[in-house]
Write a structure and sequence with these properties.
Number of helices: 17
Distance between the termini: 90 Å
Helix content: 25-40%
Shape: elongated
Length: 502
């Protein structure tokens, strides 16, 4: 009998505890949101569960092309610990109705943002929201632009809806670099917000000067990209230039903003990604700020190039030496290391693997580059793994074989640079000859020299061996290069150097 009584009281106790928990969540929406966020990070929940304030038409109206959340989260994935993204922070204060009534005559909407429009192509987080929440998005954006701190929401909004809207504004607009990643609200017991308070970082105290500096540093990078022919070239240029100008520093000030990367030159993943987003937007290339988990909270980008979406993680490519390992990758390629969270799960899926791209001319037509070892100079260099045969020239002397191979390649001996010293001398001569601007030159080398050439461009040795001297004579400071390699036959390669000096 005692056993049954014990079981009875245990069950009753569990039921009462559950009811108490439900009541706590009902009267404290902030706690509900916090629990939901924690469960979401732990993998509970799915892409199909639409977040508060998000339009179901957006989520379910994309023909099944949505992002598929990987089955497991990556652990300890961050390259060199390079993360540092801080999720949007919410602070809430529940107030009684009489206090809310007193606020209604004091707290005004400020700038409602009426008449503002945001193109879905460049502002996808805005497009995710339902109509009412889009009005609130416009209001938050307009008041943030004007540095207004506290205001009454222009439409009814709950605590959980407000978080989605704030995240949407914050993710869409890297140019609002003074807007902090945290905000607060006052709400009633039913979860309805009555006052929203935005927070601003230190740049808000000298905003005019900060804006000028921000635009000046951005312009220095953009000026080098604007003259390039295709979006692919511009994207590669911005990616490489950011790696050149920014260093990863977990202690950098303002490191959640594009300002930290562009002006200070020190940041974490959030600053890299927001700077990349801003620069690409300025070039008219759709680029989105994507947040998620990569062993730690992390941020990267999704970019649209030639009609396809790709993941780009500039932070993880900016190692020593720098790489292209996380440049223009599909969701499948990113799945072992990157998992989207929050509103980012509703961004377009990246479905095209980087290995399957064709080189596309600026007029949109595909070129036949089957003879090139790395057909697309916008991608990481991909080298031939096995040497080419020497056309079966057996029974010949070494000199006879060489002449036969040169003939097969359509070359003469004086057209080939046999060692690295001669290769560098030829590059220096040709780079000075082609001059300043968007140029191209080629050097013929034996296949046996290729590993050394590859190593020079991987380690950066080519700079000191010919680039520095050429730039000094040309009286310019900036240099970008992409390599293409053509197989000529007979064991010879032609190395094309696509260069931009300015």
């Amino acid at each position: 009998m005692k056993v049954f009584k014990y079981i009875f009281y245990t069950v009753v106790g569990l039921i009462m505890a559950g009811c108490a928990g439900i009541l706590v969540c009902v009267f404290n929406p902030s706690l509900t949101d916090m629990l939901a966020e924690q469960f979401g990070r732990a993998g509970i929940g799915s892409y199909g569960e639409v977040q508060p304030g998000v339009s179901e038409a957006w989520v379910y109206g994309r023909g099944g092309n949505g992002y598929e959340v990987p089955g497991s989260r990556p652990e300890n994935a961050a390259v060199g610990g390079r993360a540092g993204y801080e999720p949007v922070r919410e602070e809430g204060e529940q107030i009684p109705q009489d206090v809310a009534d007193d606020l209604s005559g004091v707290i005004l909407p400020g700038d409602t943002g009426s008449g503002l429009t945001f193109d879905e192509t460049f502002y996808p987080y805005y497009a995710m929201l339902n109509k009412d929440m889009q009005q609130l998005y416009s209001q938050i954006y307009a008041n943030a632009r004007n540095l207004l701190s506290s205001f009454a929401p222009v439409v009814p909004v709950t605590v959980s809806q407000l978080k989605s809207v704030y995240e949407a504004v914050y993710n869409d607009h890297p140019e609002l670099f003074w807007l902090d990643g945290g905000y607060s609200c006052k709400y009633l017991g039913n979860g309805s917000c009555v006052e929203i308070t935005l927070k601003y970082n230190d740049t808000s105290t000298y905003l005019e000067d900060a804006r000028q500096d921000f635009q000046m540093y951005a312009r220095r990078i953009l000026s080098g990209a604007e003259g390039l022919g295709s979006d692919s070239e511009k994207e590669q240029y911005i990616h490489d230039k950011l790696m050149e100008m920014v260093e990863y520093d977990p202690n950098a000030s303002l490191n959640q903003s594009a300002y930290s990367a562009l002006v200070h030159g020190w940041s974490v993943c959030a600053g890299y990604a927001r700077a990349y987003q801003f620069l690409m937007q300025q070039l008219g290339i759709p680029c989105y700020y994507c947040t998620g988990y990569a062993g730690e909270d992390h941020a990267w980008n999704i970019v649209k190039i030639n009609g396809d979406y790709y993941n780009v993680d500039v932070t993880w490519d900016d190692t020593n030496p720098s790489t292209q390992d996380y440049f223009n990758k599909s969701d499948q390629e990113f799945a072992p290391t990157h998992v989207r969270t929050g509103l980012s799960v509703y961004l377009p899926a990246c479905e095209k693997d980087s290995g399957g791209e064709q080189n596309t001319d600026t007029d949109g037509t595909s070129s036949d580059l089957s003879g090139f070892i790395n057909p697309n100079p916008m991608e990481p260099l991909r080298w031939q793994s096995n040497p080419q045969p020497d056309n079966g020239n057996t029974g010949m002397t070494a000199e006879e074989k060489k002449q036969a191979n040169l003939e097969a390649a359509g070359l003469t001996e004086d057209q080939v640079r046999e060692n690295m010293e001669d290769y560098y001398k030829e590059c220096l001569k040709l780079l000075k000859e082609v001059g300043v601007g968007d140029k191209k030159f080629s050097v013929n080398i034996p296949e046996t020299l290729w590993n050394s050439v590859e190593r020079a461009y991987t380690t950066g040795d080519y700079w000191k061996n010919y680039v520095d001297d050429a730039l000094e004579e040309l009286k310019v400071e900036n240099f970008v290069i992409h390599i293409q390699v053509e197989r000529l036959g007979g064991g010879y390669y032609r190395v094309y150097h696509n260069v931009l000096t300015y």
